[in-house]
Amino acid sequence: MKPYLELLSFVKVNNSLSKLNEIFNQVNTLVKNFKVVNVTISTKYKVNNIVIYLDQPELYQAFINSIKKLNPIPIIDGPNKAIKENSSTLKSRENNSPTLESREEILSGYAIGHQKEGITYKCTASFWVRQQGLAYLTTVGHCAANGTLDPHGAVRFFFIEPGTENIKYFGNMTRYSIEPVDRGFILPSDGYSESPFIYSKELKGPLFAIVDFTRTRVSFTEGTVLCKSGSTTGYDCGKVTSVKVKTVLIIKDYGVSNYEDLTEVSTRCEYGDSGAPVFSFSNPLNYGTGVNMFGVVVGINSIKDLMYFMPLYQILDSDMNVITIRD
């Protein structure tokens, strides 16, 4: 190595490759949410940042304002032939207008589940987490109950394309538990990626952005308003009716489960809503500010219109964080 040291050049950088990949995916999400067209996104290692090429930046000020909230802030450039030619992230259309080659995102609130003997066992996507550089989709562990295991002990998971009956495989639940904590983590396959947005069944699109999450114990007072977005009953809000609930739930294809420290909320829920994200608005006077994530629906009482949710402090590992728009 010594004979070649004088030929080498080292440059100190602030952003790791994994960080640049995260920013790339976040920009990808914003491109779709703001319906930006004729855009090029490129990872430029010489400047240690993401470079965004816009043909008409004046049309996308809201998109640009959101980009400026990322850390690090990507570089936004105008017409520049060199960027177009050097980008390896593009496919060409017939009119040579650049388009982003992206992965399909699975949103919190989507209908997901596993299949066995032609039957789909449905639940709801909770939220995405990141652990040791990998992104996992979270839902209830009992969604995999009685699932067919592959040779590695994982359960294949599918999602139902919104507005259709089409079922598509997107990843494997690599680990899960039902008691004492009801949680499962799905590792996506190639072609699918994370999203910090909550899907609305009613609007058939993203409804709220996840801006924060609470991983510590929370003592809700009775009457506190919390919301959920389930794949069956959709978006709904209700009031906390009881806290620190110790309850026994009967789970289909599993049996009786005992849980502690659940919170009871008066809101409608039905089969398929298990796993639904539970949240409140960061600013109740302005829904556009996004939501704060608190937990996951693990049980329901459809007769009395009650749901029971498990808090994040039980679900998340110490090195695991919920993916938000601030990541």
Write out key terms for the chains shown.
single chain, 327 residues, mainly beta, GMP Synthetase, Chain A, domain 3, Thrombin, subunit H, 3 domains, eight-stranded antiparallel β-sheet, six-stranded antiparallel beta barrel, disordered N terminus
User: What is the rounded Rg?
Assistant: 22 Å
CATH superfamily of the largest domain: Trypsin-like serine proteases
Number of strands: 23
Number of domains: 3
| Major sheet characteristics | 8 strands, antiparallel
Mean pLDDT: 83
Shape: globular
Low-confidence stretches: 1-10, 80-101
Helix and strand sequence = HEEHEHEEEEEEEEEEEEEEEEEEEHE
CATH topology grouping of the largest domain: Thrombin, subunit H
Q: Note the quaternary state here.
A: single chain
Protein architecture, described:
It is built from four helices and 23 strands. By secondary structure, it is mainly beta. It folds into three domains: 17-98, GMP Synthetase, Chain A, domain 3, CATH 3.30.300; 111-192, Beta Barrel (Thrombin, subunit H), CATH 2.40.10; 197-322, Beta Barrel (Thrombin, subunit H). The two termini are 38 Å apart. The model is unreliable at 1-10 and 80-101 (pLDDT under 50).
